[in-house]
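Exercise 7. Given the components listed, write out the predicted structure of the assembled complex. Treat all entries as one system.
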Amino acid sequence: MKATKKKAVAVLSTLALVTGLLAGCGSDEGQAAEGGVQNVSIAIAQVGDVPSKDNEVQKKIEAYTNTKLDVQWIPASAYNDKINVMIASSDMPKIVKVQYNPTVTSAMRNEVFWEVGPLLKDYKNLSAQNERFFDNIKVEGKIYGVPVFSDIARATVIYRKDWFEKLNLKVPTTADEWYETIKTLSTSDPDGDGQDNTFGLMLFKRYNEDQYSFTTRLGVSFGAPNKWKVEDDGSFTPEFMTPEYKQVMDLLKRLYDEKLLNQDFAVFDSTEAEKKYDSGLVGMRVGVAQNGKSQQERLSKNDPDGVVDIAGLLGPNGDRVAGQTGNSGILAFPKSTVKSEEELKSLLAFIDKLMDPEMATLLMRGIEDKHFTKVGEDQVEMSDFDGFQREVKPYRDNFPYVEGYNVPKLKDTELGEKGTELAKALAEHAVPNPALTLYSPTYGDRGADLDQMIADAQTKYIMGKIDEAGWQKEIENWANAGGNKIREEYAEDYKKQAQ
Amino acid sequence: MQQDKTWGNRIFDFLNHGLLLLIGIVTVIPFIYILAVSFTSPSEVAKGGFILFPKEFSLAAYRYIFSTDTLIRSLGVSIYITVVGTLINLLFTSLMAYPLSRRYLRGRQPILLGVLFTMLFSGGMIPTYFVVKSLHLTDTLWSLMLPTAISAFNLIVLKNFFQAIPDELEDAAKIDGCNDVGVLFRIVLPLSMPAMATFSLFYAVAHWNSFFSAVIYINDSQKWPVQVWLREIVILAQSRIGDTSIEETEIQPLTIRMAVIVFSTIPIMLVYPFLQKHFAKGVMLGSVKG
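Answer.
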């Protein structure tokens, strides 16, 4: 009896499996457009929780742009892998948000995506934006998508105003001033608790990597180039071979030697560093202009008397700010799914509409009387910021928007408004990275390893594990391992593009 | 027996126990820490004041993660793929392992070589993706269960286990009127419960931890297993800092991250004690049998 039962279970489970299999196959595919409503499928990055399909924000976007949105949210933790699979298999929705990296640029070079450059002038909102945004995403001089705009330059000093006033300090400009300021902040007990527990500056392990690199930002303010320098003869020099950048390394080395810098910076986790800033133990940092406000908020929770302020990164030669890519991704249109130029144009029109006043307000401020309220002519105030972060931010972060364009002003804290203005003002002082859109096959292949090599060598130099000669030797190693080739390839491509 | 112990023995025992206790504590403490942090108020964590026992007990983190149904739904998905997926695994693995374990099966060697080959060389991510896609499995939970239905390694171990079952039993069953399917389900499998328990644990843990295939094959966020969210909340908090993204990514407070870890680990940990006794037996597969 028992055995037959078991047999029955086995047979049943096999049956269930087969039917389930068949059911699984019948996935829905392809919906036709209905009544002039355009179907737009789009793959973008997940920000926080994924909004439900029929949420108010998406409905408003659909109603205004007359589309039916099908959003595919991709978790950031595997974003590039997923995009790579999608590109390799040509299995893409009509709009894909990609990052400007070697895989994507080579896909662009191979015409996987539509070129949109010549079309952009027909769209009033897109063509109204600073050309720099578009220049920064060029591949062989062509534009293959719409950048999700972000500030081009925004590095600032975020510092404890109350401590600076108490100790009679001012925001440093030269390497020597930086040293003095950090020394004073960490030795004269600015928080007045009688303990030697404060830091002037705190570094964490990725301090010299990517476009957010602390060393690049500080170096540029001292006069160093942004990642690469074009010499008069058209050759390329990496930043770490310039004397101005060396100042930053020597400054950090000196701070490290005198124990004015956290000694474990090479392995220090960034979240731990954030905690120290939040609990009011650190005097200053190089960060993003808009971060001043949130820094103040977090600090106030632990230290109600703490006052945060921001200032431009002033160097000995005036404002020089390391320019960034000016985008947080590119909305690209795959040729495999967008079949005709007509369709491409309608998708561009959709994106352009997202920057109309009504949509810009929705994306940047949320829904009236839900997320914001009007306070006077063309000015609004956030009333439910948490709700905005949860419901609107996922869309805003993925669609093009420019603060101050087609959107009512935001009544903010003084520091918040200062941050917004400063970020705008700094754009004029941006020092661009000349190699940003240049093509170097060697960098595509081995760039990450080479970058890491130099980053590690810098850490060793700062910690005194190698001396001047050792550092020079590391540079030589870098040059021989492919660095020189990158320099040549950049120079060549630069010459080609200048013609 | 007690008097047999010399002083040397006692010292040895003492040191042994001490060492094991130490190792035990070292392994358990991180879990306790995670549990403790998840029940603490964020401000206390920020101050970094406590070591193992928080002063301010708080359920805020759990209230937060249960404020939407995302995590509960994804937990449901995870449980579903773990249970159904493991059943599929066990069924298919034993269906293939049993014939391969019978020496009289013709063409056994080439098939085994083929299986071995897949252990050494795999098609890679993109060809696999194409297979899954052309079978219309993308965006369904089947894509998480079917491509991994048989693990080559487990198959070979199970085949060896089946081989150890005497042929005479099979003969006896056949004489009593059992066909091949009957032999497998009524004789061989009941005799292999320790092995099945072991493999169900292996498979279940793999399903529970599946993250990458979910991200690659599934576009609909409603169908993500809990690990995708876990990774999003825990890993991102570390890598995305230093103003990488648009303005600033809010970092989930440590308490919330820890609560998510607790929430996504406990269910699979609960399974363990029930399978543990089989597990001990099953792992000894190759050893001498009484």
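Discussion: Confidence is low (pLDDT under 50) at residues 238-249, 286-290 of chain B. Residues 40 and 55 of chain B are 8 Å apart (CA to CA).
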